[in-house]
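Practice problem. Given the sequence and the SMILES for zinc ion, write out the predicted structure.
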Amino acid sequence: MINTTGKIVKTDAEWRAQLTGLQFRVTRKHGTEQAFTGEYWNTKVAGTYACICCGQVLFDSKTKYDSGTGWPSFYAPVGEGAVAYKEDRSFFMRRTEVLCSKCDAHLGHVFPDGPAPTGKRFCMNSASLKLMPSKDGGDDLGVVSDPT
Ligand SMILES: [Zn+2]
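Answer key:
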């Protein structure tokens, strides 16, 4: 269901039906996967990372870097509108939570100790993301044409 703000809103039961247990815990219940266990922390495949819940493109592999934390880390989202930010005071820490701007999926946190050019470290959960490898291989589908 898409409401009037363009956001995707679903019930827990609906999300549960669509996601694995871990994906549900992380994205809908603000969980964190264990470091060095996620699917993408060490992935170097070129492509884009989309929201596991709604498919909105969130990060480009070009901004992914090895932070040594065991979580996939990026220095910038694909665009400022792709993610939303929220202050998170849980666990007696003050952190900035990063959410998918379209469906409010919890993605991870952003910290001010990343590399140039942004100086930011988007510390994400693999469970929140789906990698869509780029098709630079040169198959015929690469030509953009709109038959309508
Ligand atoms: Zn989303």
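Check your answer against the key. Strands lie at 47-51, 57-60, 64-65, 73-74, 83-88, 95-100, 106-111, 121-124, 129-133.
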